[in-house]
Amino acid sequence: MPPVTVVDAVAALEAAYPPALAQDWDAVGLAVGDPAEGVRRVLIAVDPLPEVIEEAVTVGADLLVTHHPLLLRGVHGVAATGPKGTAVHRLIRHGVALFTAHTNADAARPGVSDALAEALGVTVEAPLAPQDDGSVGIGRIGSLSAPESLADFSRRVADALPATAWGVRTGGDPQRTVRRVAVSGGAGDSMLHLARAAGVDVYVTADLRHHPATDHLAEAGAPALVDVAHWASEHPWCAQAAAVLAAAAPELEITVSTTRTDAWSLGSPSPEPSSAGAVIS
After folding, report:
1. Largest Cα–Cα distance in the chain?
2. Chain-centre distance of CA 56, in angstroms?
3. CB count, 10 Å around CB of 14?
4. What are the pLDDT digits (tens) for 79-136?
5. What does the H/E/C string look like for the chain?
6. Closest residue by Cα to residue 31 from 85, 81, 82
7. What is the C-alpha to C-alpha distance for residues 238 and 255, in angstroms, rounded to an integer?
8. Rounded to the nearest 10 degrees, what angle do helices 236-248 and 112-120 cross at?
9. Neighbours of 210 (CB within 10 A)
10. Edge-to-edge strands of the sheet including 169-171?
């Protein structure tokens, strides 16, 4: 049997995550590497950060598959004088190709939010932001097998996702009943209005900002919010992408990176608030 090549792996991944589904501002596909080179070992991760590239080199990977692009914004050079150029040089020097599936993996079905929903025990019914014929799109709407309190659901999320410094933040009545759920891996506060329109009980996403979140929660009947780390919300996709490659080329040695690439390294709990109001003199 001929060896698997980079182009073979790319074809399998692009069949699962069609580039046409990517947003027009995105940068997806093969970013570094020779399509004709052979592939024996693959590392899959969320971010192409230096520590992940070092992991790829250490495990002898021929291909690094990531969700986030290395070169999302235009560059005018890749000299090894900055983080991006250094990354490109290290990949090339060690014969590691780099492939990215970003918003195309967000929109594909199954995709990033399907993997997040599965990790949380949510049965998917439809996209939150439908694209094309409505069968694909960013985010998912679904339901739990049985209702539970928001407090219990928040614990479910924390237990299901990789640990991060800040953990999980939840907005809403802890005793609220949760059955219907919307999820969106990655930054999702631009879709708060879609979660409200979907009539779900809770919306799980990442990178929620103060003003959009407080304005949302002030709306009558608005879903509760569960805010998780961006990296943690998208990490379940890595196993999904690994399964895509394993089905297409069983001879590949595929590793899912567990390197935590969340931006935050320390979380310090606040003290319990005093029952008395602050006195300002």
Report:
1. 81
2. 19
3. 17
4. 888 899 999 999 999 999 999 999 999 999 999 999 999 999 999 999 999 999 999 9
5. CCCCEHHHHHHHHHHHCCHHHCCCCCCCEEEECCCCCECCEEEEECCCCHHHHHHHHHHCCCEEEECCCCCCCCCCCCCCCCHHHHHHHHHHHCCCEEEECCHHHHHCCCCHHHHHHHHHCCEEEEEEEEECCCCEEEEEEEEEEEEEEHHHHHHHHHHHCCCCCCCCEEECCCCCEEEEEEEEEEECHHHHHHHHHHCCCEEEEECCCHHHHHHHHHCCCCCEEEEECHHHHHCHHHHHHHHHHHHHCCCCEEEECCCCCCCCCCCCCCCCCCCCCCCCC
6. 85
7. 9
8. 120
9. 7
10. 123-131, 136-149, 177-187, 202-206, 224-228, 169-171
Torsion angle of the four alpha carbons 175, 176, 180, 185, in this order, in degrees rounded to the nearest 10: -70
Q: Would you tell me how many other CB atoms lie within 10 Å of the CB of residue 133?
A: 7
pLDDT in tens, 54-78: 999 999 999 999 999 999 887 878 8
- Determine the residue type at 137: G
- Alpha-carbon distances, residue 175 vs 32, 148, 152, 179, 224 (angstroms): 50, 9, 9, 13, 11
Question: Are 117 and 200 spatial neighbours (Cβ–Cβ below 8 Å)?
Answer: no
For helices 6-16 and 236-248, angle between their N-to-C axes, nearest 10 degrees? 120
Could you count the other beta carbons within 10 Å of the beta carbon of residue 119?
22
pTM to 2 decimals? 0.95
